[in-house]
Amino acid sequence: MRFCDLKLSIERSPLARHVRRLYADLERRGVRLRPHVWLSEEWFSPDGVPGIAVPFYLAHPRLERLERRVMREAEGGNTRLLLRILRHEAGHALDNAYRLRRRRRWRAVFGPASLPYPARYRARAGSRRYVHHLGEWYAQAHPTEDFAETFAVWLTPKSGWRKNYADWPAFHKLKAVDELVASVRDERAPVRNRTRIEPIDLNTRTLAQHYRRKLAHNRLIRRGLADELLQRAFSSERPRRGALRAATLLRAEGRQLAAVVARALKVERYSVEQILRMLIERSERLQLYVRGNRRDARRYLRWMLERLTGLYSQGATPHLPL
């Protein structure tokens, strides 16, 4: 089936109430902008367009189940994450609407938006110069992502950013967002186009073509240190009937191990949990199984978490995809 034949609509989907929630958040903060939202193949906010593209599968539960079955996850598939992404993309939309990146204050705080966008980025897990919002230290990817992540934290109701980030260098970025929004609060946005980039209703690609291309792209992602460590510890072939999946073990033991590693390395638990989430995703994608006993596997998992967390803290990223 072609995308254009799905006859999807945001207004007739559960997405509508989440978009209204975003608009309520913006109104509560005194932001005049109401980004237009349309369905596309993935999440994005195009440069020069004060709007947000939302992936098609969020407009229908059957399509969301299909996304999970093929891709093993549906980004934005729960209310909490969906609102987080919408608030992040609203930051991009506000930047586009008021051309904030051209302002001296924006550049002084976040850096030049003209910097090349990296295929991968080297995250410093222990850095407090960036806020934590979407995960995987996404604010460190690029100045525009830094602004969008900071705006999202600022926008989130009851985020308590003044208290939670009071002792962080990132606090001055939150203050800058507060000041930038105040400076345009009474201004009409100079960019008001309602352009929709790659909308679903005009897309003649089939679902099969979409997923073949998406899976092929994922296969091109270079395997990094995390994959090497996982494949050293676990087996890609089921060693015996009823063997435990590595991802199942990680989920069962992960929270406790994350707390232990965070205390041992004196780092924030958030950082360890981001690495744990990546390990679970990679274990599922590689279809790995526990081949030894659970106690030995748990011991190796702790060593692996400590090593990867240590590398992140030093700025060495095991090839996190954006």
Name the descriptors.
2 strands, mainly alpha, 322 residues, disordered C terminus
**pLDDT averaged residue by residue:** 88
Beta-strand percent range: under 5%
Termini distance?
A: 29 Å
Largest sheet: 2 strands, parallel
Helix content: 40-55%
Number of domains: 2
Element order, helices and strands? HEEHHHHHHHHHHH
Structural commentary:
By secondary structure, the chain is mostly helical. It folds into 2 domains: about 5-185, no CATH class; about 220-315, no CATH class. Helices cover about 50% and strands about 5% of the residues. The chain is built from 12 helices and 2 strands. It has helices at about 15-30, 60-70, 80-100, 105-110, 145-155, 160-165, 170-185, 205-220, 225-235, 245-265, 270-285, 295-315, and strands spanning about 35-40, 50-55. The chain has a two-stranded parallel ribbon with strand order 1-2. Helix 3 crosses helix 5 (about 145-155), helix 4 packs antiparallel against helix 7 (about 170-185) and helix 10 packs antiparallel against helix 11 (about 270-285). The protein is globular, with a radius of gyration of 21 Å. Residues about 315-320 have low confidence and may be disordered.
